[in-house]
Write a structure and sequence with these properties.
This protein is α/β, with parallel strands linked by helices. It contains 7 helices and 15 strands. Strands 1-2-3-6-8-9 form a 6-stranded mixed beta sheet, covered by helices on one side.
């Protein structure tokens, strides 16, 4: 079955979110929603999430699921905000527990933070299935960019997170904690085994000025045109390219604010005794 897919582009972070719905009913899922955050003022806002939620209401949809493809390092998640508005089950890959354990140490969160995935309603593993109305959804484990990366295969549509970008932008970095270029190559090979006509929906696009942002490609186009990894690209060549590129990359601008929110399922840290919430900024810290 072919799901209806409505994309939402967050230009500030180059991120795509999606509302995926069953055309035969009102059942829907939200994938990778973004919470606005201003790094200078330290203020959060929900303009992007509001636009997404307004679409859900206009379309008369019922949100069954709010789904994360991984713990994002480049934007804050609006999953908790939207779960409070619409309900629904919050899902992510089971590898989130390893991500939580690592970043609990980085942020020195101590035993007050549970690194067991309990902030989420469902921890998916490879091959898991669930329903969105009459739509069958299947989970593919696609780690490599991060250790918790998963793809949601919903009908003919694959929501791949940061596994691949548009063909002219290539692939995602693998130098974050838990990332591995060999593992990413294997995950991409798993995606390339899907039917060529599979619609591929990406979590990010970073185009130059020669084209507008795009959210969608196909397996056939990726296999033929991806500048980093075509169907015939060897693991050795990919790893050499990916590790060489990663060595020169700077950290994402929002990595430290984003991760401490996103390991909490998009919930902000609890208020302290003065009523204010605080984000931590580790100084001179090695991430791996």
């Amino acid at each position: 079955m072919r799901p209806a897919v409505e994309p939402f582009f967050h230009a500030t972070t180059g991120s795509y979110s999606y509302v995926v719905s069953d055309p035969g009913s009102t059942h829907a899922a939200i994938i990778d929603p973004v919470l606005d955050y201003d790094l200078v003022s330290g203020r959060t806002s929900a303009e992007a999430a509001q636009a997404l939620g307004d679409y859900v209401e206009r379309a008369g949809l019922r949100v069954d699921w709010i789904l994360e493809t991984h713990v994002h390092a480049d934007h804050l998640s609006a999953a908790d905000h939207l779960r409070q508005r619409f309900g629904g089950h919050l899902g992510i890959g089971a590898g989130v527990r390893d991500v939580q354990a690592h970043w609990r140490r980085v942020y020195n969160l101590g035993d007050d933070f549970a690194a067991d995935g309990s902030q989420f309603d469902r921890l998916f593993t490879d091959g898991d299935e669930f329903e969105i109305g009459q739509l069958r959804a299947r989970v593919l484990a696609t780690p490599g960019h991060t250790s918790d990366g998963i793809t949601y295969l919903i009908g003919d549509a694959a929501f791949i997170g940061d596994t691949l970008f548009a063909p002219d932008c290539g692939s995602a970095r693998c130098d974050f904690p838990g990332g591995n270029a060999q593992t990413l190559h294997a995950s991409i090979a798993k995606l390339y085994a899907l039917p060529d006509t599979t619609r591929v929906f990406m979590c990010h696009d970073y185009p130059d000025t020669r084209r507008p942002p795009r959210c969608q490609t196909t397996i056939a186009e990726q296999k033929r045109d991806n500048i980093h990894v075509r169907a015939d690209t060897s693991r050795e060549d990919f790893v050499k390219m990916r590790e060489g590129r990663d060595a020169g990359l700077s950290l994402p601008r929002l990595i430290f604010p984003a991760l401490q929110v996103n390991i909490r399922g998009g919930a902000l840290p609890a208020p302290e005794e003065n009523g204010a919430r605080y984000l931590k900024l580790p100084l001179n810290t090695r991430l791996r």
